[in-house]
């Protein structure tokens, strides 16, 4: 799964030298118009020869670096899928294949990739989650839809395995009065169960899978080796993600990070009942390296909540959910053909619409109550349900604004933030009256940055919002960005894509993958601004969610007020 996610990134044996040559055949781009005539005649023989010639050295290299025989087997399984599909995608990319060909390729490949992810699990589950979150705006809707099940529907481990792990870490019978055998969620590293403590407190228990650290480390090495050959531009980012990802294996540390973020947001008036968000309270005295016990947030995954809401809206319009979704996709296609951006309602427009629906709800509830206290008592009549505010749509614009503000505060004010804020880690909660709120979970990948870095990032955001190219380039250099030629335009464009926004004007009509490749070809990256890579990931993930809801945002514009306040108050 991660492979298709990285289908454009690739993942080769580190030493597949012939494949490296293939990608730069005669100094030209692979499958460029200059080599189009021979692409089908030389493509597979060259690739096959590459694998044969590289096998001896590559096999030992991979064996030694990805976790022995098991890791080697996993790597070869990954490569057997990734390499042919990578080549096939490159072929269609440079051959400018029509949309119907791409749709079929995406449908078939994403399904096969999902099967491969289920087979291998490990980091490939994480890769699929990045696809589902449309990280970087690089993934077609077909891929996002296929991989969405990996947000929290990974095949779980048998409960006997889970109970053995918990029992080895805690006195199971002394700590819990009940423990549900069926998990409420499962992912790459572990799964989550509902339980009740002896004192009657309801909790959720996150349990780490056995041997997962060794497996995941090998998977990351496998992916990096592929990227080093096929997409070297992504290697520095993968290395930072790897470093942060490895912090997820200690649940004592994750529990403390969860508590730190919760306290920071509560202090700022952003967390708690009736506030912008909720973060679960960890029970630190019950947390161990492999078990995390925390408060349960009552709600659903954001994606599930939005699907339910879509069904309600469809019924409101007298349509099925499928009809409603089909119409939305058709609108998206037409907008794309016209070169337009399909924009959702603003926050104020949502409020007006919700206000009208709420008045209708109140009138309807009044009639229902009258029915219930009168004819509802007669035999054969049913009592009518009184609707709370959960029947009303969510203000998508406000939700996106809140998510940007919360994470902007974490980065710029606290210097302590979640770099893995994909939709699977965001919940849609309901207050007592049914009004919506946001739940933030999974703080395994927390990044801490210094005051100096916070201030530098604040200045960079302001420069990006002002589109001050000279200042953007200067700050990117100060942040540690290095390229071979130090081309100012490359530094500027990289900053816009990483920390601000992605649009056709910036991408010059190209797909984000080709755009990044062109930047790399123009001026190869030597070093990325390491301390800001996770901030970039946070920005990209939030922008991906906003884009999916037709609420496109400039991160620089959204975070500018916080940046200005930080620079003023901490000067």
TrEMBL record:
<dbReference type="GO" id="GO:0004672">
    <property type="term" value="F:protein kinase activity"/>
</dbReference>
<dbReference type="InterPro" id="IPR004147">
    <property type="entry name" value="ABC1_dom"/>
</dbReference>
<feature type="domain" description="Protein kinase">
    <location>
        <begin position="178"/>
        <end position="571"/>
    </location>
</feature>
<dbReference type="InterPro" id="IPR051130">
    <property type="entry name" value="Mito_struct-func_regulator"/>
</dbReference>
<dbReference type="Pfam" id="PF03109">
    <property type="entry name" value="ABC1"/>
</dbReference>
<dbReference type="InterPro" id="IPR000719">
    <property type="entry name" value="Prot_kinase_dom"/>
</dbReference>
<dbReference type="GO" id="GO:0005524">
    <property type="term" value="F:ATP binding"/>
</dbReference>
<dbReference type="InterPro" id="IPR011009">
    <property type="entry name" value="Kinase-like_dom_sf"/>
</dbReference>
<protein>
    <recommendedName>
        <fullName>Protein kinase domain-containing protein</fullName>
    </recommendedName>
</protein>
